[in-house]
C-alpha cells in the first residue's frame, strides 16, 4: 500500500485509542473528542479498509477478529512514532515515568535511585508504586517493574531483575514469646502472617512438612511483602519473605531467618517496556543502569 492509500492518520489514532479502552467514550475523553466524532472516525476507517473493526452491543463494544489482528500493529506503529520523535528531541530535561510494584520500590529502588539521578541529572524520575498492571502502550508510563510470573507479551522487552525465593522470618520478640524453633514443623505452632499465601505451601513442601492453614489464621491477607514484613517486625507472626530484600534487618538482628532453606515458584521481578521504544534514550539509560545495579541480586 503506497502512502496515498493509507487510511487517515487521525482515524488510525482514534482506532488505537478505542481498541485500547474498548470504549468510544473513554477514547473521546483521552483525545478531547466527542463520542460522535470518535464514531465518525471509526466509520471512516472501516469504510477505507473495507471491513468492520468493532462489533457494537447494547452497552459495550468488542474488536472483530480483523480488529484484534490490526490493533497491536497500530499500537506498535504509534509507539515507534513516539519513540522516533523522542529520540531526536533536543530537550534533555526529559521525564522518565514508570510503574513499580511497592515491594521492589520500598526494599531496593528507594535506597538506590539517587545514584541514577546523580548520574543523569537532566532526567526527572516519576515513580508510581502500585500493584495495578498499567498499560504500557497508552503513553502514560515509559516502563514498568513488575512482579510474579515472567510477562508473556511479544510486544514487550522483558529483563530479569531478580528471581524471587522466599523463606520464613521471625522477630526476636515473637521468638522469645513462642519458644525455640528447631525444626520447620515448629513453625506450625506459631501465628503465620498471611497463612494462605502460596509461598507458605511451596516452602513447607520444599522441607517435606505437610501444611494446612489453621482455622484461626485462615483468610487473613495483607497484600504484599512490605506490609507482611511490617507485621513480622512487629512480632505479629512469622512472615514468608524474600531474604535479599531484608538483609539489613537480618544483619541488625531485627529479623531472624531460622532456616537456610528457601523455595521458589518461578516468580521474579521484571523490567518491561515496549519493543517499539527500545531506542528511547532515557529508557536505554535507565535500563542499563538498573541491570548493572541489580547484577548482585541475580548472582
Q: Can you tell me the number of structural domains?
A: 3
Any guess at the CATH architecture of the largest domain? 3-Layer(aba) Sandwich
What percent of residues are in strands? 15-25%
> What ranges have pLDDT less than 50 throughout 5 or more consecutive residues?
none
Tell me, rounded to a whole number, the average pLDDT.
Answer: 89
The named CATH superfamily of the largest domain? Periplasmic binding protein-like II
Biggest sheet, spatial arrangement of strands: 4-3-5-9-6
Run of helices and strands:
HHHEEHEHEEEEHHHEHEHH
Q: Largest beta sheet, briefly?
A: 5 strands, mixed
In DSSP terms (H or I, runs of 4 or more residues), the helix count works out at 11
Strand segment tally: 9
- Spatial shape: elongated
- CATH class type of the largest domain: Alpha Beta
Question: What would you call the structural class?
Answer: alpha/beta
Please tell me how large the radius of gyration is. Answer: 24 Å
> Share of helix among residues?
40-55%
CATH fold title of the largest domain: D-Maltodextrin-Binding Protein, domain 2
Q: Which oligomeric state applies?
A: single chain
> Cα distance, first to last residue?
50 Å
Family: Belongs to the LysR transcriptional regulatory family.
Protein name: LysR family transcriptional regulator
Organism: Limoniibacter endophyticus
GO molecular function: DNA-binding transcription factor activity; sequence-specific DNA binding
Amino acid at each position: 500500500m503506497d502512502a496515498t492509500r493509507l487510511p487517515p492518520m487521525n482515524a488510525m489514532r482514534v482506532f488505537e485509542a478505542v481498541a485500547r479502552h474498548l470504549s468510544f467514550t473513554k477514547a473521546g475523553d483521552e483525545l478531547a473528542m466527542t463520542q460522535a466524532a470518535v464514531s465518525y472516525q471509526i466509520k471512516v476507517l472501516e469504510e477505507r479498509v473495507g471491513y468492520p473493526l468493532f462489533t457494537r452491543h447494547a452497552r459495550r463494544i468488542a474488536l472483530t477478529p480483523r480488529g484484534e489482528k490490526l490493533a497491536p500493529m497500530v499500537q506498535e506503529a504509534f509507539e515507534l512514532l513516539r519513540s522516533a520523535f523522542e529520540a531526536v528531541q533536543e530537550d534533555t530535561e526529559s521525564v522518565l515515568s514508570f510503574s513499580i510494584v511497592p515491594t521492589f520500590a520500598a526494599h531496593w529502588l528507594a535506597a538506590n535511585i539517587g545514584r541514577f539521578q546523580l548520574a543523569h541529572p537532566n532526567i526527572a524520575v516519576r515513580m508510581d508504586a502500585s500493584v495495578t498492571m498499567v498499560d504500557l502502550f497508552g503513553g502514560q508510563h515509559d516502563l514498568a517493574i513488575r512482579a510474579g510470573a515472567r510477562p508473556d507479551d511479544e510486544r514487550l522487552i522483558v529483563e530479569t531483575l531478580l528471581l524471587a525465593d522466599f523463606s520464613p522470618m521471625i522477630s526476636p520478640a515473637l521468638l522469645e514469646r513462642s519458644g525455640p524453633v528447631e525444626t520447620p514443623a515448629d513453625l506450625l505452632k506459631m501465628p503465620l502472617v498471611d497463612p494462605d499465601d502460596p509461598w507458605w505451601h511451596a516452602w513447607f513442601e520444599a522441607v517435606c512438612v505437610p501444611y494446612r492453614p489453621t482455622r484461626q489464621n485462615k483468610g487473613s491477607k495483607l497484600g504484599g511483602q512490605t506490609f507482611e514484613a511490617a507485621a513480622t517486625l512487629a512480632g505479629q507472626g512469622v512472615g514468608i519473605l524474600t531474604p535479599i530484600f531484608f538483609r539489613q534487618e537480618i544483619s541488625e538482628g531485627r529479623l531472624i531467618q531460622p532456616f537456610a532453606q528457601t523455595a521458589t515458584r518461578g516468580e521474579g521481578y521484571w523490567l518491561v517496556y515496549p519493543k517499539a521504544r527500545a531506542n528511547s534514550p532515557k529508557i536505554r539509560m535507565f535500563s542499563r543502569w538498573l541491570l548493572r545495579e541489580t547484577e548482585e541480586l541475580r548472582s
